[in-house]
Design goal:
This protein is of the alpha/beta class. The protein has 6 helices and 5 strands. The chain has a single domain, classed as P-loop containing nucleotide triphosphate hydrolases (Rossmann fold, 3-Layer(aba) Sandwich). The longest helix has 18 residues. About 30% of the residues are buried.
């Protein structure tokens, strides 16, 4: 595995704990006083922002996931497969010097597609698939396992703090 990648992208089925793991990784980075800017990013952020405009308190339900998937499918069909990648790149540029990764770590909590994984690898990042007993992929195109060649490591999800530390050790951020 490459040492200290500038991007750690988390993949896995709905409900496996990708966002929880991302928040725990960021917390662990703060706890260890790394001199690095940590950003939690999301390919789906523009979709969530649009949803907030439509509904003050979006529900956490399967219906909500269906809406987000349909919105993502429509955005990709209308504006191209890389539309959410372009949006994330713009967000990263707005928040720090995206062209100079030194001193930055982006944690992406919602990697779902092959082209997103390819973008992460092109930017010297790693793709970590999270797995938890009893949590499986639904089979929807945006909730399906990536091809194994796109996954750099598989990490079982347990205690959130330990999962985060395991990912940071695996990626060279912690000794």
């Amino acid at each position: 595995m490459r040492q200290q990648p500038p991007i750690i992208a988390l993949a896995g089925p709905d409900g496996v704990g990708k966002s929880t793991a991302a928040n725990e990784i960021a917390s662990a980075m703060r706890d260890h006083d790394f001199l690095v800017t940590v950003l939690i990013g999301s390919f789906g952020r523009p979709l969530r922002e649009a949803a907030r405009l439509l509904c003050e308190h979006p529900p956490k339900s399967d219906g909500w996931r269906d809406w987000m998937r349909a919105a993502g499918d429509t955005a990709r069909a209308t504006h191209g497969e890389d539309v959410l990648i372009s949006a994330l790149e713009a967000n990263l540029r707005d928040r720090y010097d995206y062209d100079n990764w030194n001193g930055h770590l982006a944690i992406i909590d919602d990697l779902r597609t092959a082209n997103e994984a390819e973008w992460v690898h092109a930017n010297k990042g790693v793709v970590i698939e999270l797995r938890r007993e009893g949590v499986t992929y639904s089979g929807h195109s945006l909730d399906s396992r990536l091809h194994p060649t796109l996954i750099d490591a598989v990490v079982p999800v347990g205690d959130p703090t330990e999962t985060a530390r395991h990912i940071l050790r695996l990626t060279g951020w912690l000794a």
